[in-house]
Amino acid sequence: MKKIVFTGGGTGGHIFPIIAVAREIKKINPYLEIFFIGPQDEISDQIFEEEGIKVKKIQSGKIRSYFNPASFLQNIIDIVFRVPLGIIQSFFYLFFLSPDLVFSKGGHGAFPVIIASRILQTPLFVHESDIVPGKVNQKSFDYALEIFTSFSGTMFCPPQKMILTGNPLKLSLLENIKPLFIKEKIGVNKDKPVILVIGGSQGSERINDLILSALPHLLPNYIIIHQSGAKNFKKIATQTDFLVKKDQKKNYHLFSFFNEEQLKYAYTACDFVVSRSGSGSIFEIAAFNKPSILIPLPESAQDHQTKNAYAYADTGAALVIEEENMTDHFFVQRILSLFNDENLLKEMSQKAAEFSRPKSAQVIAGYVVEFLK
User: Fold this and answer.
1) Residue span of the structural domain in which 63 resides
2) How many domains is the chain built from?
């Protein structure tokens, strides 16, 4: 029986595309054995278990670019102990599993597996979500047989190996959407334009603060669906209890985190999206053909979110507001001016549709299964 090992780790941006590709592989060939080797993560472990993917845990570490005594000590521990241990663990897992292919999504959790796969000469496929590749993926490009990319201008990628596919989305997001169920699924009675605010899988305190400041100006005319992130949820809920007027509470819908079904209906319900600019978020927004404002995370590795945002905005599908320019007044004025220009919103929606690649996971799965033949 053919076997494939997925690896990656660090954020949900590494895990969710793996799930998307694994699902499509199973549709084509349900007899393939699929494994994941990566660092301990309770949320991803549960997701993999639900998908029937067997998980092998390893130690991993990363090099922190910010310098203080604590980060220096953590770097030493990771470099001297955790990463070497992870490579040894990965070597034995790969040796005994003998997979036919390793598929890496990058991130520090993938590094030990990539090194072990190179030692054992196991074929490697890589997917890079961002226009600026992460350091782990960059180091694997020379060894990889195929490199799937989300953006056509992906930096440092050997052109002869690059296959432009977009970022893999779980197709269940786009399937069986019934607009009549919007009220039932997420509590929104759509009688005004709907703005969806997503701060990434972890939420964003700064975007949360921006939205709280803007709520008094937006709620009279718009419905806000706000995903705050789990760690900020209680604080935001308490603040909005006092901030939102009683007669406007029906226009504000707060979530800590969207499950797959809620996310699908939130995208369906909304007319506009405010989001961070991770690749996963951009391709979800594009798949639903929604105009958007992107607010890049300035601390993202190699500033990849800013570069992602501007690459997408260059298509005409979105506007970019960098945090240094982000005030509640400026933000509200941009929202109001956009909704006053119906033709511009339609054009942004069309450009999003042209950019989207909703079948990315299917395309990648096809390459993987064909290689394994």
Assistant:
1) 3-169+358-372
2) 2
